[in-house]
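Give me structure tokens for this 509-residue protein.
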Amino acid sequence: MTMHGTRAAVRRFCTVLLLMLCGPAWGGDPTPNYPTDPKGWSDAATRDINAAYAVLVENHPGVYDPANPGFRDLLKKAQQQSLALAAQTRDAAGYAAAISRFRAVLSDGHAGVFPTLGKTDIGEPTWPGFVAVWRGNGLYVFGSEADGIARGAKVVSCDGVAIKDLIVRNVFRFMGRADQPGQWWSMAGLIFADTKNPFVTLPKSCVFETSGKTSTQTLAWRPAGQSGKTMREWSNQGIRGDVLAPGMTEPEPGIFWIAMPTFSLDEKVKAVYGDLIAKITSDRGKLLGARAIVLDLRGNHGGSSSYSRDIAGALWGKALVDAEMKAHFKDVEIWWRASPGNTEYVRRSAGEASAKGFPDMAASWTKVAEGMQAALDKGDKFYVARNSSDAKPSTAPAEPALKTPVYVIVPGQCASACNDALDVFTRFPNTKLIGAPSSADSNYLEVRLEKLPSGLASVVIPNKVWVHRPRASGGFYSPAITLSDLEWSTAAFLVVVIQDLAERKTRGG
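Here you go.
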């Protein structure tokens, strides 16, 4: 149904404690032009924000989406609020913050603007000597080398402001989406990472709670320096746990663990998934009689939705999966915004998919490109691709039903094609989600990048809008079992699975 996978880097956050979204824009032009004085940085931010606004007006499907009449006003609001910060910008960090505000106002991971500056441009990040993570009902210290601040302590408030309010003010005002629970799991800890944002006041003193007792600690902000590796490791472990390489293992007798940390269209990833699907197919007899199957999405930021569909087909049977998904998406239409830039992007994507060995995807892209060009020639705003209803039913014999309990580990950053995987896996009653709430998508998908005039930022442009998608815009998945433990390791999730299996047995389920 979907063809996400062309720019997974857009949906990734940089190494979490550097805090800046990064990754090269497709095309590579223009060459970065670094301002040399405060006025230059302010002018660059202003020029880039206005250019981003113009590009989105020209190409974003929301501008002409009849189901979203408020989009134009939202886009204008993003421009105006970013320009207000640009007028106050005096350096690279201020530029990055003003640019980031644009995307935060749009509140859509598939649209907006992001800076491509790094720590060499902005300065060495600082931290207070500890890393914190969100665990559903609050922020907790995951790792600490700061005196008086212990691992596991709950952060109650800072400088007299409740920690949740401070996170909204300092973090979500410039990145992420505060109305989505999954974003708290993946981003709230950034409150204790300093990116030199001149529009943020760093907390000076915080109240911590340990075993029912509170204490107030003054924060000693320091350069990351040699601790940078420690910061990154703690942050990654806190948010994702020990992410496994794609593949299937059996960590406990009868419990099969299928790791899917990426859906990238990289050729090596494609080959790994080909081997994985072949192994699942050959071992399906074992899986039918297994105690449990765990589908591990930790670390997954999206990419191509074809992988999850193929893995589901290997597990539940391709004919059954195809029938379920056809019924699920029976009313869906995909409206491709037929602008010249979007049309050329889809045309290039067809060639890219063919070169990478995805002939079916290449054919789909080619069909879309032709439809977009036809719409463009007629002056239509969209090429409408309707769900095909003339596919022939499978004549293959029905495979034995998979009744094994299936657990899907959901990380907070799960969005885009990762959410598509949940669309598939949850079609089957033997599936149970564990972990955290996923992030949410709007109905605007399939992004491309375009660099802005300074070469220091890129605009993210979605190319299509889903119409009548069962999962609503802003909809996300909530886990049946939330893992609120500090540790998100494989061992911790294995305990959750074993405990739930025991409870199922007790219940006779």
